[in-house]
From TrEMBL:
Superkingdom of the source species: Eukaryota
CDD domains: Cadherin_repeat
Compartments reported by the entry: Cell junction, Adherens junction; Cell membrane
Chief location bin: other
Organism field: Hucho hucho (huchen)
Keywords (A to Z) from UniProt: Calcium, Cell adhesion, Cell junction, Cell membrane, Glycoprotein, Membrane, Metal-binding, Repeat, Signal, Transmembrane, Transmembrane helix
Descriptive protein name: Cadherin 7
Membrane topology: Single-pass type I membrane protein
Domain Cadherin span(s) in chain numbering: 75-155, 156-264, 265-378, 379-483, 483-601
GO molecular-function term, one example from the UniProt record: cadherin binding
Amino acid sequence: YIENPGTLLALLLPLWELGCWGLISASGGQNHAQHTAVGPWEMLHRHKRSWVWNQFFVLEEYTGEEPLYVGKLHSDVDKGDGKVKYVLSGEGSTSIFTIDENTGDIHATKRLDREEQAYYTLQAQAVDRITNIPVEPRSEFLVKVQDINDNEPKFMDGHYMAGVPEMSALGTMVVQVAATDADDPTYGNSARVVYSIISGQPYFSVEPKTGVIRTALPNMDREVKDQYVLVIQAKDMVGQMGGLSGTTSVTITLTDVNDNPPRFSRKNYQYTVLESLPVASVVARVKAVDADIGPNAEMEYRIMEDGPGLFNITTDEDTQEGVIILQKPLDFETKNSFNVRIEATNRNVDPAFVHLGSFSDTTSVKVTVEDVNEPPVYSTQLSRMGVSEDARVGTSIGKVSAHDPDSSNSAIRYSIDRNTDLERFFNVDALSGVISTAKPLDREVNSVHNLTILAMESQDPTKIGKCFVAITVLDINDNAPVFAIEYETLLCENAAPGQVIQTISAVDKDEPPSGHRFYFSLPVSVAGNTNFTLRDNKDNTASIVTKRGGFRRREQMLYRLPVLIVDSGSPALSSTNTLSMNVCACDSDGVAQSCGAVPYILPAGLSTGALVAILGCIITLLVMVLLIVSMRRKKKEPLILEEERDVRENIVRYDCEGGGEEDTEAFDMVALRNLNVIRDPKVRRDVTPDTHTFFPYPMSSSSQAVYKTLPDNVVFREFIWDRLKDADVEPSAPPYDSLQTYAFEGSGSVAESLSSLESLSTDSEQNYDYLSTWGPRFKKLADLYGGESL
């Protein structure tokens, strides 16, 4: 049996094709199972199939509360006794689709969306409930999701930007828009879209089926309005009522064309400039206005009328202004105003719009020149002068002239820029401008002097004009010719008579206009020598030729030959130059092997006795020297005796032991202790006797004060000053700082002297009990010497 609202359609299918098993769709549709075609013989023997293929159809976006019934599976093996169980597998078999294992009813438990997945492939199978053994083979079937109009058209490209030239004809295509609908285009009208324009009329229109936007008005002008925003709607269901729709915006910009000529805002311009304006400076700027933009607004300017050609005009590419530039200097006194006519023309003219009129415009510019106080002007900026190098001081060379171009015509004073004449070779007369020499000139030192002459107005010295003067020093014949180089001439001993041994040339610092011409000859004093002669080659060179052969170094190793050179100047100058020739030993090709003196060779074969005698003399001298040195070392005497020695540099040894305090023979103890011994001042050899010392020594009379008679607080000071003075004037003292040791105990001590030097005059057995009364500092000393004698 079949349970489904569409059972009637299922019953109409051929039963022999369906077999005993059926797959019943909830939508009422039942299709044939997939199979391959067979021939008549196979049809007679075909096996009966248990499964019937169908495609289930399920509506998308089901919103009911109960699971959506999809269809029913049934097998003729199922007798209704519950022994057969239906199993469902495949896509969504557990998450989306469920099957009643007893009845075979299939339900969808979730809402389906065709745009996410259009169909599901499932496998159905009937198995034994107890053994799970399939009672029918596994077979596949499809569950297709039927589309509904649940998606509006969408413009995937978003906002559109487009452009169309201004002044375009009616119906010119601008851009094409496209919307897509996610619904099924093969089912109904859900995905059939039509386009319409909501905003943007009457300037533009859109084709309903294609979405092509076209101009709806002709000759739209960018200069009036250059941008339009359109709203385009796309609606499905062929635009019928209930269809879904989507919109997008389209911004259309009118692109510029050259349909506007340039226009000057004024027909006359006036500008004022100073006559001191430098050449190539900007005089003025003018601009023609063009309503177009970009390349269509680019312009070319030209000057139509400009009398003397003082001005030129160029285009500023950034601002499209006409820049008037000065080409020649202005002169108020010559002309103080100029009228210039200027034309502005579009650089890129569109032939399609020539009928609109001329794409150019003209204007008039008046330039007025203002007078300024100008510096003096020279008649010529560069003057060339010449002066002979033997010209006397004060010789006039030339004159420069300048004038004040202003109407005041001030007097002019001239001077030389001394930075161009550091050595002050020239002077210029301040009033007349005459240039003269101030020092003797020498062309060979400096042949050209470039001076800058300054011209100043007497009324306004700040206005200075300059001109440049090139003074060329003209040459005179004041330098004699000399050898071109220092020649090193080699004369071979095997030189033959008539052989050229040297070719000489000359140089002259002068530069005669016709060039140099030198004449070579031998002085009269050596013209008749028998060794060499000179041959003038008439080309400013000369050859030195031997008169004989057989030169020998042993006889003469150097020859000196004077050469007289005369120039062609007026008056002619000459000089005598000496050519030195060294005699050398040469090979057969004339290449020098050795030059200079020949060593003297002793006769070979000295006798053996002579050699022995020479050797014996040398040995005897060596022995004598060694003996003298050894003897001096034994005596320990220096080879060079010093007349004066500083005893402090020597160590004096005494090998005998003194007698101690009881020995009165070796030293006078009293004299050694006496501090009042008068020392005669001595003068140092390395200082001037009357030179004052650094410290102010106390002046002493012929008889110095006795130390013992001085107060206790003065004793030490006087003693130190006295020793310091002795050290400064001591003639044997070194002229450098030294350490002076003063072993003076002073007088007036309560304990008197503790030195053993005066023990001779005192009792050796003394009483030291008084030490205990001196306080804690002398306690140790009192313990050593005080107390009962043992």
